[in-house]
Amino acid sequence: MSKNFWFSIKKPLLALAPMAGITDSAFRQICRKNGADVVYSEMASVSALFFKPAKTLNLVRFNKKESPYIVQLFGNNPKHFAIATKIITEKIKPDGIDINFGCPAKKVFGHGSGCALMPQINLSREIILSVCENTSLPVSIKIRAGLKNFNAREFIEKTKDLPYCAVMIHGRTYEGGFSGPIDWKLIEQIKKIIPEKIVLGNGGINTSEDALEILQKYPAIDGLGIARGAWGKPYLFNQIKNKMGNCDFFKIKKIILEHARLIYADKNEMGKFEIRKHLAWYIKGFPGASELRQKLVRAENIEEIKQILA
Ligand SMILES: Cc1cc2nc3c(=O)[nH]c(=O)nc-3n(C[C@H](O)[C@H](O)[C@H](O)COP(=O)(O)O)c2cc1C
């Protein structure tokens, strides 16, 4: 993988957006194999990496097959960001490092991290510099459309001179949470402010039709970040690339079993619990889904999953 992979991927670029509790190594591998161009880790705390790194290092380790792989960091202490960046660069060796400026969750926002940083321009600049100065890897940021009366345009205007090379914009405000409308026009305007950086739009892309419509309507945007749309549909990335609608059950079954194998290989006994939510998402909308789900969530191993799906 070249040092700055961001500029060598064919556009439109399709990214698996970071999701705590979801984008583990197995899911990232499945998404990469099914068309995602780049995958993000679950968010990792810089303070945890600063004080007691072992558990967090385990959370963000990866398989080379996932590459290009980005580790996302969150926190609000520039010194912790500096040390965490060094640790991740040296011990994990991902392809890039991302900074979380978008999380609205109470335990992140409430501590002055994630989206709470956006209006604090000086602190945000200090954090971005702490990361950029402590790694040779490309640095990216993830932001929201804004919060209260603070707009993402202002954040970008006031940080655009810094050497981060990509930004993923979740086109909902802090107040919009996870279900408000997506401001695609704002994302397009931001690309115009930073034409030399990669700009990915994120939010509400759940089908290949959604993606193709947005890509056609806003051609200046370099690509899309997909989060919940990939739940039970890691093949969504390939559907978008191939401009296709459906995926047949035979293919889905193969993906489910491969996903289960990867989770079991990575998480051993815990794998059987971790795969459950994914199994429920995979079969959502299938005829007889609720009966199937009840059987699948009781499966003890891959062989049982295979038999139930057969
Ligand atoms: C369960 C869950 C966990 C998430 N965790 C993160 C995270 O760790 N870091 C981050 O920047 N965003 C996180 N997000 C936000 C997503 O990356 C994305 O911005 C948001 O879900 C909007 O995209 P969507 O409409 O495609 O789901 C998370 C979202 C969900 C639903």
Structure characterization notes:
This protein has 310 residues and is of the alpha/beta class. It has 2 domains: 5-241, TIM Barrel, CATH 3.20.20.70; 249-309. It is 43% helix and 15% strand. It contains 14 helices and 11 strands. The strands form 2 sheets. It has an 8-stranded parallel barrel, surrounded by 4 helices. It has a two-stranded antiparallel sheet with strand order 7-8. Helix 1 packs antiparallel against helix 11, helix 11 runs antiparallel to helix 12 and helix 11 packs antiparallel against helix 14. The chain is globular, with a radius of gyration of 19 Å. It starts with 12 loop residues before the first strand and ends with a helix. 45% of the residues are buried. The model has no long low-confidence stretch (mean pLDDT 96). Bound molecules: flavin mononucleotide. Flavin mononucleotide (FMN) is lined by residues 17-22, 42-43, 72, 100, 102-103, 142, 170, 178, 202-205, 226-229.
Give the count of helical stretches.
14
Indicate the percent of residues in helices. 40-55%
Q: Tell me the strand order in the biggest sheet.
A: 1-2-4-5-6-9-10-11
| Amino-to-carboxy terminus distance | 39 Å
Percentage of β-strand residues: 5-15%
CATH-assigned homologous superfamily of the largest domain: Aldolase class I
CATH topology of the largest domain: TIM Barrel
Mean pLDDT: 96
